[in-house]
Amino acid sequence: MADQGGSQHGIARTSRVRTEEQKNRDLERIARYHELEDQVRARVAQGDYSSAVFQLTSKLLRLNPEYYTIWNVRRRCLISGSFSKPSAGSSCSTACLTSSPTATTAPSSISCLSSSSATTPPAPGLPTAGKSGTTADPTVAAAAEPPGAIESAPSEAESHDFTTLKSELAFTIPLLLESPKCYWIWSYRLWILQQAIARLRPALARTVWEEELGLASKMLGKDRRNFHAWGYRRHVVGQLESRSLQGSSMVEAEFAYTDRMIKSDLSNFSAWHSRSRLIPRLLEERAADEAARRAFLDKEFQQIREALNVGPEDQSLWYYHQFLVLNLVYPDKHPAMTPGFTVHDRVAYLKREIDEIKELLEDYADIQLIYEGLFEYTLYLCQLERRNPKADERADLVEWLAKLKQLDPMRRGRWADLEREHELTAGGSDV
Amino acid sequence: MESLSDTLWDIVICGTGLQQSLLALALSRSGKKILHIDPNEFYGSAEAAFSLQDAESWAHRVSTGSGGLFAFASITKPEGAVDLSSSRAYSLALAPKLIHARSTLLSRLVSSRAYRQVEFLAVGSFYIFRPPQDTQNPTLVRIPSTREEVFSTTDVSSKAKRQLMKFLKFVLDSEASPQLETWQPYADTPLTGFLQQEFNMDAELQMYIITFTLSLEGNISTKDGLAVIRRHLSSMGLYGPGFAAIYPKWGGLSEITQISCRAGAVGGAVYMLGTGIKEMETVENEVKLQLTSGDTVRTRMLVRASDSASGQTGINRLVAVISSPLSSMFQSIVEGAPRPAVAVIAFPAGSLSTPAGRASEHPVYLSAHSSDTGECPVGQSVLYLTTLSTPDAKAVLERALDIFICPTSGDEAPQVLYQLQYEQRTGPDTFEVDGPIFTFPAPSPSLSFDDSTLVPVREAWKRVMGDAAVYAEYLVFDDRDVALDDNDVYDTW
C-alpha cells in the first residue's frame, strides 16, 4: 500500500473509485497487514530478531516501505544474524550503531549491542543532507583498513557479508520503483552502503558503490529533475572519491555527465546547478592558467547563450547565465573562474553579453525574462564601471521597465520599486 | 461440427490486410460466427511481409497481372551477391509505415491487449539529403525536432534557430487561438508559402519542415501539413526519450495483421488461406458466396477489400538489401533513449537527377531499417525507397540508392545484395456499403500511419454488432489470462 507521494513532475494523481468488490478486497488486505504487523511487534518485544522475524519484515516492508520502525527491526536482524559476527575491532560496533537517528528504536533489550547503548549513533547522509553526508566517518574508515593490509582472497565472512549486502540492495529495488521518493528506503540503502565500507575491503566495497552510481544515473534518467536523486548522486560520487574507497577525483566525469543531461533536457535546473558547483574544482584540477580559464568561460557563455536562443522563457537557463555574470561582477564573493580578469576585461564581457541578449529581442519580443536580464545586467555594468547609467542606458531601462509592466502586471509593485530605486520615473507615467 | 455451408455466418471477411485484420480483432470477443478468408497463401494482403521466396512468388503473380493494386514487380540479384542469406532470414515489408506515438492505433492495440504480442522499435532521426555543393561531398543533415535538438545542431544559424523554435511552439498549439486565426487563411495553400510569409523562413528551413510531413507530393497544404507536424512533435518523448514514432518488429504493419488474425482465431473465427471468392450473389439480406475452395457459404455480411485502381497517382517503391549495418544511422542521440531501428532520409524534389539529366519531380523518401527490425540478418540493412509514380520514378529511386550507399570516407561501399521494385496504385479512399456488402477503401501509400485508416474498421464493426454495438467496448478487452492473485505478494520474499 505504498503511496506514490506527490506528483512526479508532470504525472498527475488520479483518484480511484472503488467498487464494493474492491472495497472488500481492501478490507481483507488491511486485516492481513495488521496481522503481519502484530506478529512482528510481538516477537520484537521478546527480543526476537531471528531469521523468521527477518522474513516477516520483508513481507511487511513490501506492503509499506514507509514503516521506518520495521526498517530498524530489519537492521537489527542483520546485525544479530546474517552479518558475520563482529570481530574484536571497534569497526563493527560503530557500524552497528549507524542507524537512522530519527527512527524510533525498539526497547533496549538487544543482546548483541552490549557496549553500544551509551554512544550516540553518527548520522549517515540522508538524501537531502548531501553536504553533511559527503565525508565518510573517519573512525569507520580507519577501522576498516587493518594496518598493513595485504591483498588476500576474501575470507568466508567477507564473502558472506558481500552476498548479504547485495541481496539487501536488491530487496530495496522493487520498493524504490514503486516509491522512488520514500526517505526510509534510501536511508536503508545508505546504511547498507556504509556497511559495505565497514565490512568489506575497499576494492570490493567500491564495486558496490559504483553500482550505486549506476542506480543514481538510472533514477535521473527516469526523472531528470528529481533533486533528491541529484543530491544522492553527489553523495555517492563523494564517497567514490574518498580514501575509504581508494578513490580519485571524478570531477571530469561528473562534468561530462551534466553535459549529457543538459543535452537531453535543457530545462534541467539541477544539472545546471551541479555544473556550477563542479566548475571551481574542475578548473583547479586542470591546473588551468588564465588563458585556459578565459577559454573555458567563453565556451560556457557561448553554450548558455545558444540555450537561451532556443529557450528564452526558461528560468533555469537564466539562472545559469546569471551565475556566469555574477562571476564577472563579484569576483570576490564567488570562487573566481577568472581571477586574473581586470575590470576592463569584465566590462568587455558584460557588454558583449548585453549585446547578444539584445539580439534575442529581434524574434522574442514578449519574453519577460529577457527584459529582466537586460535590466539587471545594465545596472551591473554601471556598478562595475562605478558610474550612473548614461542617457541612452536610462532610456533603455525605462523602455524595458515599461515592457515588464505590460507583460507582468501582477508584479507592478516590484516594477514600481525598481523605478523609484533607480530614479527612472518619467513624470506622470502609469505605475 | 457444422460444415462451412451449413452455417449462416454473421460475417465473412475477405482478405487479411490491416483493416480486415483489425476488424477480426475487434470482433474476437463477440461470439459472432466469423469466416475469414484470403486468396493468398499468406496473411497481410497489401500489408504483408515476405521471405525472399515469398517475395519471388508474389512478384511473379504481380507481373502476370493478378496483383490487384500492385504492378510491374521485378527482382534483381546482382552477380556475385554471395552474402545473401537464406530466404527465411528476411521479412521484407510491403507497408513499412512508421506509427506516431500519438496514433490512435497504438491506444487501440493497448486497450485490446493486443500490444503484448508486438515488439515495437524506436524510429530515430529524420535526415535531409544535401546534394554535393562545389567540391563538397553530399551530406545527410539531421533535422532537429525538439528544443534540445535545435540547441545541439550546428547546421542552422542562430536566427534560423529562433524562427524554428517559434514555429515549433506555434504548431504545438495550432488548434488554439490566436494560432488558428493566423493559419486558417492559408489552410488550402501550400505550407511552404505560409512558412515564408508568417515565419520568414528561407528555402532551406522550409525544406526541413516539409520533410517532417513525409509528403509524397512535396507541396502539402498548410492545414494538412500543420496537422501532421503537430502529430510528430506531440508524439516526441511520449513513450520514452528521443523518439516520436515506432515501428513493429518483423515487418511493420504485417505483424499487426498477424496478431490480429491470431486473436480472431483464438476468439473462434475460422481461417482459410488460399481461398477467394469465385462468385457472389445477394439474396434478400444475405450474401451467397461460392469460394474457390468449392464451398458455398451464406453470410449476413461480407467485408472485403477494394481492388480497383482510382485515377490518382500511386507510388514507386524500391526495396534493397545491402551488406552494411549502417551503424552510424542507428545511434540514439539522447541520453537514455533506445537505439533506433529505423531512420528516414528525404531527398527533396530536384535534388536528384536521372541518367538522362532530368531533375526529380517529387521528393524521395528512404526508410532505412537495421537488422533489429528482424527484416534482415545482422550485418545487413533493408532500405525502402518511395516516390510518387512518374515516368522517371524508377530511375530516380535507383539514383537515390546509388548516392546513398556511396561512401563519403575511404571505406568500401556496401554491396546491394537484392532489389525488389514495384508500383502500387491508389484506390478509393472511402469505404462503400452496398446492402450487406461492405468494402474497405484501398490502402494508402503514405509513409506514416494515418488514423483515418481506423474509421472504416469501426464502421464495419458497428454494422456487424448491430444493436449490441457499445462504443465503449470497441477494441477494449481484458486480458484472457487469469489475473495474479493478491496472495502472491506475500510469498515473493
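Residues 101 and 138 of chain A are 19 Å apart (CA to CA).
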